[in-house]
Amino acid sequence: MRLFSKRYHPPGTAPGTLRPPVEEAPPTPRVRLVDYSTGDVLLNKDADVGQCRDAIGRDSVTWIEVNGRPDADTLRDLGEAFSLHPLALEDVVNEGQRPKIEIYDDQLFMVLHLPSFDGTRLSMHQVSVFLHRDYLVTLCPLADDPFAPIVQRIRTTGTRIRGEGPGYLFYTIIDLVIDRAFPVLERFGLELELIEEELLDRPDRDVLHRIHRVKRDMILLRRSLWPQREVVNGILHHDPQFIPDPIRVYLRDCYDHTIQIMDLVESYRDMSASLLDIYLSSASMRLNEVMRMLTVIATIFIPLTFITGVYGMNFGADPPSPWAMPELRWYYGYPLLWVIMIALVVGMLAWFHRRGWL
């Protein structure tokens, strides 16, 4: 997985160009129309742009949800039908935008990042939102529907979302995207706990690779989620024509969630860095243990090697010389030498143990 990726047009391309990069796979967008009021819900899972445009103007909330990476024609039709700004549509095509909020005439355009983690790979998906006082348009490159829980709440009679306007739906989408980070971080927390246990038990290269993977994912999460907090804070200070005052209370709760998420990200970053330090310290300690044992073994065999080297010279004389080795002619010389060497080894081991080197 590339840590920092961004799709963009070649330098010099005219602003508002909706041509996706050549290397992109064929798009498979799905447009869903959700039009609801207090007493009625219209759900069209495979709508066209014309049907979505016709739904505007009723005494209801219109939500156009595009799942999958849309092609240029679909984006162009959506832009013409809902007066979406070309620069905003260009940001939709060039995914990897930094979370941000823009005001275009009577529309609010927002980019958020939706995290997902399958146990081995962390992915960040751009969610683009257009808010108007009469409708709301969302675009997400995921083929699966990330907003299914919101649709289920809309289909349930008597829920609060059914009695509110687009501003409350806008808050609900922001809340879902932000809170998707909590289960992802929870899995990272469990992963860090497992790494810590294995690190204290049997540190190996696999543990080191997992630590580096978590550190890399924390960098990606911080890069995406840090500006998201500022986006939510910026929405709170924008013109109330988009966000009514009663909705701002809920957005403040979203802002509080972003702070909690960033606290967790920073904590996990520090924890992963600490685990890496522990791994390096543990590897150094293991190396020191090995070197200590080798040093003890070498130290034990140094006097033994000296003794066997001296008596391995076999210097003698015939007739006997006072300068020759008298031990060579001792009757018990060989067993006595073994006793001396064994006693020397035992004495050295006892001394090493007393000094705490064993």
Overview of the structural elements:
The chain is α+β, with helices and mostly antiparallel strands. It folds into two domains: 30-282, CorA soluble domain-like (Beta Polymerase, domain 2); 290-354, no CATH class. Helices cover 53% and strands 14% of the residues. It has nine helices and seven strands, in the order E-E-H-E-H-H-E-E-E-E-H-H-H-H-H-H. It has a seven-stranded mixed beta sheet, sandwiched between helices. Strand 6 and strand 7 (135-140) form a beta hairpin. Helix 8 (245-311) packs antiparallel against helix 9. The longest helix has 67 residues, at 245-311. The two termini are 46 Å apart. The relative contact order is 0.08. The mean pLDDT is 84.
Secondary structure elements and pairings:
Layout: E1 30-36, E2 41-44, H1 49-55, E3 61-67, H2 72-82, H3 86-93, E4 100-104, E5 107-117, E6 122-131, E7 135-140, H4 148-155, H5 166-179, H6 181-201, H7 205-236, H8 245-311, H9 333-354
Parallel strand pairs: 3-7
Antiparallel strand pairs: 1-2, 1-3, 4-5, 5-6, 6-7
